Amino acid sequence: MTTAKVSTDSKQIASSAAGTCPVAPAQSSSLRSEWRKLLWGLLVFAAFFALPLGWGRFDRSIYEALALARWYAQEHVLLCLVPAFFIVSAIAVFVSQTTVMRYLGPAVPKPVAYGVALHFAGLNGAVFSRERRRGGRSSAGHASLKAV
Asked: Average pLDDT, stretch 34-52?
């Protein structure tokens, strides 16, 4: 063990005599990651510093983006996804795993499995498609987007 230490010390002495600073690889990657974090922080700061706040077009676009996100949360998540989760939970409770595996398992012929899967996909599309039943309002027809 002492010979390994002596050889390591001799390498450090040789590198310091050559004018280079011995840096361990772990320290180098750590330093690189710190510089990377600093660079990302500066880029984010520069992006926020250069935001054109007060410009009418920019302010309207931010407002419309937030209005569209609010519409999505109100219409789609509450009226489509929450009922879908309740229906899927009820299916999981009332339909046994053996029944599912009987029609969708690995031993089932592919045409039968695909037919059952397409049937349930069509059923789910009809049940969960509240937009079609209510007249099909899309984001392009959103009231606040028409005003722009």
From this structure: 94
